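in:
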């Protein structure tokens, strides 16, 4: 038996909104530790990794490890039927071919439930190696989303370069070039507005705007975003989900030869 209850169904809806453009379908791996998802996007350029800890749920029970393959468009339709303040309970029997979602309104005067068919998905698990990153940037997630959106108008790629002076985002294309530089700032009253850079050595890498823009759909999940970079290693874009876990995106850098 698997049962997981979240007081705020909107958190799960935000997770779905953040990944549904990258993934058509995905397997949710449930164990006593929580729920995990790991999948490559359809073009095999980026990787999505979600981890929701069992103790972040209001109630969590998983008697045996269970993998639930789901179509994310269908799952999104189910969650569109929920109210913003609803509580959601997910239930599935061992070896089940369906999963049930029950939504309860705050006043508990309305309860709706939806059953969804599960899929058998053949998804490989990729080992993500531990990396010593050259540079780790933490910044407001809204600011990151705005920079990516603005610079996407100039070109299809964005160069993120990090030095002890700060972090610079650059793009160039037919209409010209755009650069945004951020210096480190510490706001002790509002930690989420700080820009912090943990630099081992300077690094500059080029990434496809299309994917960075998709990642910023996770902005509503967290006030801050963490960017971890190292030469010849995928960029890690991480959004902490308060008290519940994290959502990470991995994106391989573009190789310069492409441009010649």
């Amino acid at each position: 038996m698997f049962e997981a209850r979240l007081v705020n169904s909107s958190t799960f809806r935000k997770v779905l909104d953040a990944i549904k453009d990258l993934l058509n379908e995905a397997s949710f791996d449930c164990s006593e530790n929580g729920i995990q998802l790991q999948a490559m996007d359809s073009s095999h350029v980026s990787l999505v990794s979600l981890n929701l800890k069992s103790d972040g749920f209001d109630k969590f029970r998983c008697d045996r490890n269970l993998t639930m393959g789901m179509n994310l468009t269908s799952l999104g339709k189910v969650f569109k039927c929920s109210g913003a303040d609803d509580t959601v309970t997910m239930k599935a029997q061992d070896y089940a071919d369906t999963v049930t979602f029950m939504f309860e309104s705050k006043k508990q005067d309305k309860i709706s439930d939806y059953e969804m068919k599960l899929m058998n998905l053949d998804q490989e698990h990729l080992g993500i190696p531990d990396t010593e990153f050259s540079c780790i940037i933490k910044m407001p997630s809204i600011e990151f989303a705005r920079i990516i959106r603005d610079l996407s108008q100039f070109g299809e790629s964005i160069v993120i370069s990090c030095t002890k002076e700060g972090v610079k985002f650059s793009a160039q294309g037919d209409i010209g070039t755009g650069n945004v530089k951020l210096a480190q700032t510490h706001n002790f009253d509002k930690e989420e507005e700080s820009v912090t850079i943990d630099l081992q050595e300077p690094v500059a890498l080029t990434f496809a705007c299309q994917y960075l823009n998709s990642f910023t759909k996770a902005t509503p999940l967290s006030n801050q975003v963490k960017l971890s970079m190292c030469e010849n290693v995928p960029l890690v874009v991480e959004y902490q989900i308060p008290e519940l876990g994290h959502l990470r995106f991995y994106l391989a850098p573009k190789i310069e030869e492409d441009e010649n």
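note: The mean pLDDT is 92.
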